[in-house]
């Protein structure tokens, strides 16, 4: 509830030699008295300034002794000082009403004068005058402690075991003085035998009085602790009885929590035992213990020095003699501990603690903690630490809101999202792309993002960042401190109330709305919290002018004025307010819980308030001990209510938290009044739980699930509890007419939390809380910043898995399944199942004792009911020690079977996770076999990132471990519930099972050797023409092995291992499939992910997968694959284009170096590509070698100017006119596609051009409408790398495209007409090459090694570069005179199909 923030403030001492030892506040927590041996100072709280300083004379110190204790009179009119010589000194504290203690003056410099309202302190700091009233001699030994018990008396404890009662006028009330020797002590009030204290020298060491517990809490000097009580508050010495705190023999101090009726006893063993009073026996019963865990502080901080409860009893501060301060919640949850702060590396808290506190006191509303800090030189300083607190501590009606914010004395700290409150932000971490969903084949997932969920992460962006909402200075300056705050359900409006009046804030407008009349603001004081009901502000207040208590309704949209307020007068002071729908619950000082029904009459601020019922709970608790009172939906609607919508719903139950004891009062309708309104009666109260700090109940606005109807309790160190409804399977079953049957349909489930909950998000099944954190800025102990800077972090925790486990443990699996099914849409639902499985596995697998009823089988069976079963098991295994895998998989199934099931369901990411598990359980041979199988599936599913990781995984396997089996986990059928699935035989002889029907060239004669060191291959003979590309990093890192391959040629020896060869073959097989089906986008992604060098690979596939037998279908597929738009022209434009294609006379403008319509990668100027000199060569020379200097490999393409001898030249004027036509055509091109697709197509154009795949280069150039690229394709047909059949196919492609544009796509017509002159050029090239081939055949008599490349009869034609590493292609696969050795790509010659109708698409055609 309370959390420190900022730096602790050091207050300056008035006297240099003043050594303060104690600080005590008055009843209002506004004035503080700091005491030293010879003086005391009275301080004001805000601003923290001293008001009066009083120092005793030397004569008084010698005569009466030094100061040892100080106590305030309840009305702050007197101060009592006790001395070491057994004297009491009474001082009068008089306020000088005609003047203030401090005058504010501006400096003479104009630049330093105040010009804003925040700089003016409007708080009236009283001017006090202290005078000695009386000196009293206590003839009873030394005084150990003083305690104020009423407005008229003070109790003084002496070393002679006496408790003397003195009046504030200095007289002693002898008749009611107590003697410990005469007080009977026992363990409870029912024991007939009670004995007084008979030991000598036994006296009270510490004491505190509380009228709500009707007694005193005391500690004795011998370490015992007790509780003194009497039948009435007069404390007649003959009626006082002592109750021992059992098990306490080292008590040091005691403090009483009034609201929760608790007695906290500090002990020498550094822990605090908290006792409660047993109402049955009257004895002290141990409620809980506040003890530091080894995680909080591994050492011993020493005995407890001081204890202080906050004014509302929601927190207690504890300090130790060895140093350190901590703050705990009411029932023992640790909120803050200075021993866990960051003091730097130089500080050893076990030897020296920089924060040693001997006395402390809470300020008003608990926003500051005043402390007396002891320094190393035995001096002392006053330290003030600021705190923020949850609004639930003073306004429990805010528990039904989902907004997380904290309130300070003059500001609010809000954790935001899209409005005023930030919901928890869940980051879904998944290695897969968002494009792919792992949906099972048998059963689709019920949600999308949950199947990919890996881990829940609390986002640091919103954990530490808080929106600070500063209260307006005009309001808080005169009404400090902030007391109550409330946020509406939408999170858009905030209302706050200080010492008087109220104000509210609009998040949308970012403006505060104040009272226009300050008299209205100062005329009432909010006493019972602030609530929002629809667009009204509801407050319980005290009218100062008229002197009575009221409930006021202020409309949000109207002016803040009493004229627009609806006022309802009540009989007693209002303590608690709460709302549920249109019902208002009011609890007052008369112990009446009044339920009102609210109805908004109109939009002008008129509200109808009708009293429905008043319940007297005076027999249950004292009104001051009631923490909260609210209405909750606990009773399930009957089938009759569900069938009839006109029948009113069952009345809501009344839930009351009194001193931590949660009680339920069930209401029922029994009659109607004269206005036909129902009348209600109440059943006897039922105790639901004890030690309850906070209560939450669902609002009921969302889906009616079991979690939304549950009652949530927070019990401090005892953890959280949920009172869960158990919905029957038969929804229409008749209910038992008995009145208490609904209680049998609920179950109380305890579960542990790692955070302190402040808000519950019922729809998200998340708890939100806050924790303390520190940052060190200075390590110098002399600096005021030597203590760390405190910050607050928002925390969150899921609780679904704990509820499911509790239900499964109680054999309530159906209810657990119902709850899990209702939460299956949550993004972190798989994570909850993983936590459920992980906790049970850790607990049972590490247990040293046999488990008679193991829960793991039932948890596995439960998780198996959900589609995320496979992900849950593997994620749990990966986050668990390997030693526990045997126990896990004995119930979950064999990992190999689960892996095969993942492959069948196409859950590739999950299968990859199982592969990591199998790597540690199986041999490397099995791991490689399964990884290769997964790689093949990943390539089929186009999961390129996963494929890249699998390739790296396969190449990283140590070859020396291939044949060394691992110690597999013994996964016997322990529970007989493992689902059998088909697996691959682990003793496969080769990888053909995984690679399909792929056969290696040279048969099965390949042998593997793992004993010899790797040997680099010799360079090929033609290495000067085609140097080998650089090896990739992955190939370099992989372990190479010596291999033996079938005898081929030394120049073509493969430079990688056999395993790498299989991987490369698999990658190339999938690449051929993609290229043959014209899926260039997927091919590019494969090449980028798997480092496939496309230029060299495409060169080898020129006459196979890169053949284009239907250019029209390829062009259509290109438009579809790249989302590339078709060109569209009107009929008029088409006619104009048709007439403009006539060659125009030559103009000089055509000679400019224009590159319009060029590719941008290998484009040259028109002067270089189209020479103007007569007789000059007209086409670029072919590439010297495929892949050398290519763009894909980081080089530049070198185009030569010389062509083959004997080539005929075209007229230079025709070429210039052609260039001029292209210039005009560029300005009228159709709209192109997006930039990314354009860049990708340009890149493919460059790759196809370098690889001499002229057919694909033509298709891409047509799609880009790049005329110069088409010209280069035609010129490249003259080169030796392009075969004669390829040139014929290129010419046929141009003809087909030309015909297709006439029939189907008229948008391409202008472009196709512009490039139609390339058809006769290709015809000429074909004729020339055919003549050359025939002439060479006729001259040839014997085989020659210098035959032309076009001679298919000779096997010695120029070869492509040898295959190299991941992108190499074997000679057997690229030779034109050898059959294709890959069955999966061996296809029959495909006859060019006829053009489909215009409405058909090419998406389903096979392009080979």
From TrEMBL:
Q: Which stretches are tagged as biased composition: Polar residues?
A: 1341-1356
Q: Which key words tag this protein in UniProt?
A: Membrane
Q: Which domain of life is it from?
A: Eukaryota
Record's subcellular location = Membrane
Please list the residue ranges annotated as the RIC1 C-terminal alpha solenoid region domain.
Answer: 801-967
Task: Please give the chief subcellular localization of this protein.
Answer: membrane
Region Disordered: what ranges?
1005-1031, 1134-1155, 1333-1408
Q: Does the keyword 4Fe-4S apply?
A: no
Q: Which InterPro entries match?
A: Ric1, RIC1_C, WD40/YVTN_repeat-like_dom_sf, WD40_repeat_dom_sf
* Pfam families (UniProt xref): Beta-prop_RIC1_2nd (PF25440), RIC1 (PF07064)
Bias type Low complexity, positions: 1021-1031
Q: Which PANTHER family match?
A: GUANINE NUCLEOTIDE EXCHANGE FACTOR SUBUNIT RIC1, RAB6A-GEF COMPLEX PARTNER PROTEIN 1
Question: What is the name of the protein in this document?
Answer: Protein RIC1 homolog
Name of encoding gene: LOC112047152
């Amino acid at each position: 509830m309370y959390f420190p923030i900022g730096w602790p403030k050091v207050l300056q001492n008035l006297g240099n030699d003043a050594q303060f030892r104690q600080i005590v506040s008055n009843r209002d927590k506004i004035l503080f008295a700091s005491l030293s041996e010879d003086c005391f100072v009275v301080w004001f709280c805000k601003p923290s300034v001293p008001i009066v300083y009083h120092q005793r004379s030397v004569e008084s110190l010698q005569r009466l002794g030094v100061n040892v204790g100080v106590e305030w009179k309840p009305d702050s009119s007197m101060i009592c000082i006790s001395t070491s010589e057994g004297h009491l000194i009474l001082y009068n504290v008089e306020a000088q009403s005609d003047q203030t203690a401090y005058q504010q003056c501006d400096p003479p410099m104009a630049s330093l004068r105040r010009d804003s309202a925040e700089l003016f302190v409007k708080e009236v700091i009283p001017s006090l005058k202290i005078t000695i009233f009386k000196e009293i001699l206590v003839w009873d030994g030394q005084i150990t402690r003083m305690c104020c018990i009423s407005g008229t008396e003070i109790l003084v404890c002496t070393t002679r075991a006496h408790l003397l009662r003195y009046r504030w006028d200095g007289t002693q009330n002898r008749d009611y003085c107590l003697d410990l020797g005469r007080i009977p002590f026992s363990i409870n009030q029912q024991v007939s035998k009670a004995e007084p204290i008979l030991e000598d020298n036994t006296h009270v060491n510490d004491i505190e009085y509380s009228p709500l517990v009707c007694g005193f809490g005391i500690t004795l000097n011998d370490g015992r602790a007790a509780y003194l009580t009497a039948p009435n508050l007069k404390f007649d010495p003959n009626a006082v009885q002592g109750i021992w705190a059992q098990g306490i023999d080292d008590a040091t101090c005691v403090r009483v929590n009034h609201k929760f009726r608790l007695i906290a006893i500090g002990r020498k063993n550094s822990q605090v035992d908290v006792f409660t009073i047993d109402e049955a026996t009257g004895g002290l019963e141990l409620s809980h213990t506040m003890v530091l865990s080894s995680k909080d502080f591994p050492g011993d901080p020493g005995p407890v020095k001081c204890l202080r409860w906050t004014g509302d009893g929601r927190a207690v501060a504890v300090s130790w003699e060895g140093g350190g301060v901590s703050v705990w919640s009411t029932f023992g949850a640790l909120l803050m501990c200075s021993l866990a702060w960051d003091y730097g590396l130089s500080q050893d808290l076990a030897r020296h603690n920089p924060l040693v506190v001997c006395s402390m006191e809470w300020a008003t509303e608990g926003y500051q903690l005043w402390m007396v800090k002891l320094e190393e030189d035995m001096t002392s300083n006053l330290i003030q630490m600021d705190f923020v607190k949850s609004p639930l501590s003073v306004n429990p009606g805010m528990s039904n809101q989902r907004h997380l914010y904290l309130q300070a004395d003059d500001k609010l700290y809000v954790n935001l999202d899209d409005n005023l409150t930030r919901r928890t932000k869940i980051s879904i971490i998944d290695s897969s792309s968002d494009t792919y969903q792992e949906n099972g084949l048998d059963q689709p997932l019920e949600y999308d993002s949950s199947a990919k969920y890996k881990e829940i992460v609390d986002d640091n962006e919103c954990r530490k960042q808080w929106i600070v909402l500063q209260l307006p200075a005009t309001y808080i300056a005169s009404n400090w401190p902030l007391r109550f705050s409330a946020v509406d359900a939408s999170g858009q409006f905030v209302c706050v109330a200080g010492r008087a009046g109220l104000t509210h804030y609009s998040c949308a407008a970012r403006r505060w709305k104040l009272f226009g009349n300050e008299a209205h603001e100062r005329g009432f004081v909010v006493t019972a919290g602030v609530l929002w009901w629809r667009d009204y502000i509801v407050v319980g207040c005290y009218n100062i002018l008229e002197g009575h208590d009221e409930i006021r309704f202020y409309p949000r949209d109207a002016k803040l004025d009493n004229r627009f307020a609806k006022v309802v007068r009540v009989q007693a002071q209002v303590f608690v307010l709460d709302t549920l729908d249109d019902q208002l619950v009011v609890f007052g000082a008369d112990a009446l819980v009044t339920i009102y029904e609210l109805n908004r009459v109109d939009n002008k601020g008129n509200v109808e308030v009708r009293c429905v019922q008043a319940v007297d709970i005076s027999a249950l608790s004292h009104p001051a001990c009631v923490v909260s009172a609210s209405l909750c939906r606990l009773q399930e609607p009957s089938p009759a209510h569900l069938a009839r919508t006109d029948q009113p719903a069952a009345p809501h139950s009344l839930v009351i938290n009194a001193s931590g004891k949660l009680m339920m009062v069930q209401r029922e309708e029994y009659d109607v009044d004269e206005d036909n309104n129902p009348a209600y009666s109440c059943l006897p109260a039922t105790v639901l739980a004890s030690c309850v700090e906070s209560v939450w109940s669902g609002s009921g606005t969302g889906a009616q699930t079991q979690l939304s109807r549950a009652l949530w309790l927070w019990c401090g160190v005892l953890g959280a509890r949920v009172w869960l409804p158990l919905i029957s399977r038969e929804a229409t079953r008749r209910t038992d007419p008995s009145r208490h049957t609904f209680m049998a349909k609920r179950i109380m489930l305890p579960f542990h939390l790692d955070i302190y909950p402040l808000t519950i998000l019922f729809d998200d099944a998340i708890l939100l809380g806050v924790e303390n954190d520190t940052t060190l800025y200075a390590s110098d102990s002399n600096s005021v910043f030597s203590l760390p800077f405190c910050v607050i972090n928002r925390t969150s925790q899921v609780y679904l898995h704990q509820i499911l486990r509790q239900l499964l443990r109680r054999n309530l699996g159906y209810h657990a399944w119902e709850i899990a099914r209702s939460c299956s849409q949550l993004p972190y639902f798989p994570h909850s199942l993983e936590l459920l499985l992980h906790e049970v596995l850790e607990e049972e697998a590490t247990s040293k004792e046999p488990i008679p009823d193991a829960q793991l089988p039932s948890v596995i069976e439960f998780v198996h009911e959900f589609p995320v079963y496979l992900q849950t098991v593997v994620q749990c295994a990966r986050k668990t020690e390997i030693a526990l895998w045997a126990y896990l998989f004995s119930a979950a199934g064999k990992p190999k079977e689960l892996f095969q099931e993942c492959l069948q369901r196409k859950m590739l990411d999950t299968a990859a996770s199982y592969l990591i598990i199998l790597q540690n359980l199986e041999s490397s041979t099995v791991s490689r076999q399964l990884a290769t199988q997964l790689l093949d599936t990943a390539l089929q599913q186009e999961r390129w990132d996963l494929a890249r990781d699998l390739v790296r995984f396969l190449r990283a396997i140590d070859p020396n471990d291939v044949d060394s089996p691992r110690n597999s986990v013994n996964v016997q059928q322990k529970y007989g519930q493992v689902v059998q699935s088909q697996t691959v035989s682990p003793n496969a002889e080769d990888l053909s099972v995984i690679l399909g029907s792929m056969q290696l060239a040279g048969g099965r004669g390949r042998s593997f050797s793992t004993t010899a060191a790797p040997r680099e291959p010799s360079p090929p003979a033609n290495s000067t023409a085609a140097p080998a590309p650089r090896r990739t990093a992955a190939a370099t890192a992989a372990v190479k092995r010596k291999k033996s391959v079938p005898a081929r040629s030394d120049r073509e020896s493969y430079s990688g291992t056999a395993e790498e060869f299989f991987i490369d073959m698999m990658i190339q097989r999938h690449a051929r499939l993609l290229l043959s089906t014209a899926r260039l986008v997927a091919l590019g992604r494969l090449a980028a992910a798997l480092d496939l060098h496309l230029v060299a690979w495409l060169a080898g596939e020129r006459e196979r997968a890169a053949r284009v037998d239907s250019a029209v279908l390829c062009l259509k597929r290109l438009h579809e694959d790249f989302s590339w738009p078709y060109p569209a022209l009107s009929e008029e434009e088409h006619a104009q284009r048709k007439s403009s294609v006539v060659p125009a006379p030559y103009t000089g403008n055509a000679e400019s170096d224009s590159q319009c319509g060029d590719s941008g990668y290998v484009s040259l100027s028109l002067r270089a590509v189209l020479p103007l000199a007569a007789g000059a060569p007209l086409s670029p020379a072919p590439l010297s070698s495929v892949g050398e200097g290519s763009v894909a490999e980081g080089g530049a393409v070198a185009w030569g100017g010389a062509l083959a001898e004997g080539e005929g030249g075209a007229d230079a004027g025709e070429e210039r006119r052609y260039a001029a036509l292209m210039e005009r055509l560029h300005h009228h091109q159709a709209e192109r596609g997006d930039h990314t697709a354009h860049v990708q197509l340009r890149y493919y154009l460059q790759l196809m051009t370098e690889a001499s795949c002229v057919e694909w280069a033509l298709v891409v150039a047509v799609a880009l409408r790049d005329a110069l690229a088409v010209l280069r394709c035609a010129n490249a047909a003259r080169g030796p790398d392009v075969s004669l059949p390829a040139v014929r196919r290129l010419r046929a492609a141009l003809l087909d495209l030309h015909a297709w544009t006439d029939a189907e796509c008229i948008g391409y017509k202008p472009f196709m007409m512009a490039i139609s002159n390339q058809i006769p050029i290709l015809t000429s090239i074909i004729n020339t090459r055919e003549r050359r081939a025939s002439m060479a055949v006729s001259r040839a008599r014997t085989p020659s090694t210098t035959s032309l490349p076009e001679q298919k009869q000779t096997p010695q034609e120029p070869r492509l570069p040898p295959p190299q590493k991941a992108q190499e292609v074997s000679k057997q696969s690229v030779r034109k005179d050898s059959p294709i050795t890959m069955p999966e790509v061996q296809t029959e010659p495909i006859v060019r199909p006829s053009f489909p109708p215009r409405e058909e698409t090419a998406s389903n055609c096979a392009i080979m």
